[in-house]
């Protein structure tokens, strides 16, 4: 596997070197970012790329509920503090991820059945987590993945006990706690037309009508090679909602076995997605869900796929990087 990556690298040597984040800022956008946490930025080569290529970091796991409040009102911030420290000492923005999510949620929260208790628990969680990093987080994914594929509200302890109003509660609380943070609703599979993106658009409009402080929509963009063609049009739709738009978790996974041709296709696909963002005035930033293929959730969750990011296992720039760079170089 590693040898194959090395051969691919030699066959497709990158021609450009630069700073993706600076290129993005030249378009008057806010950042190009990457997900990380102490387990990855402790790799000096990852840290080096974060410092030179990226302007924003998203904690891949360390700010999630199971990490920060494993038991009720007992908070642990060791990894998230390290992430915030890394960001502040390297002058990087932070996208906080995530305050209210049905997954990576401790069992004690799943077990709540009482409205008043759950309301209090959500408020306390947001106060403690967003409060700890008040003024340091550029944007929060306040709620994550609240919709099912058919566009209905995803069944979870939050929706079951409180209905859609848990979303309003989360946003209003986050806004009260950190009034300067941009507050996002974030989800996946908003990459093509269908009931899910329709429902997301309708939900954002309902939130706006109710005066809920929603400032942005995050489209995760966990994509599959060769299946990115509909992304630009969906970004356009999200860009018409009078909220900021961000690509929050971009990766484009390749079916194994890898070949130079597939890496070239990935170059095109990254180009398409980056260009899609730049064509939408409200698209403020793009975050890759990791720096290097060496550390990607795809290895564990999709074992028949590989190589979803901009840098390879050896931290070399891939053709994917060139695709992103070329899109950002085009004015
Ligand atoms: O990348 C994250 C991985 O390390 C975790 O094991 C996984 C657990 O759910 O979460 C991954 O990140 C997810 C993100 O928080 C929300 N959108 C989907 C991402 C990939 O699963």
TrEMBL record:
Residues 21-327 form the GH10 domain. GO terms for molecular function: endo-1,4-beta-xylanase activity. Residues 1-18 form the signal peptide. InterPro entries: GH, GH10, GH10_dom. It catalyses: Endohydrolysis of (1->4)-beta-D-xylosidic linkages in xylans. Keywords: Carbohydrate metabolism, Glycosidase, Hydrolase, Polysaccharide degradation, Signal, Xylan degradation. Gene3D superfamilies: Glycosidases. SUPFAM superfamilies: (Trans)glycosidases (SSF51445). GO terms for biological process: xylan catabolic process. Belongs to the glycosyl hydrolase 10 (cellulase F) family. This is Beta-xylanase. It comes from Pyronema omphalodes (strain CBS 100304) (Pyronema confluens). The lineage of its organism: Eukaryota, Fungi, Dikarya, Ascomycota, Pezizomycotina.
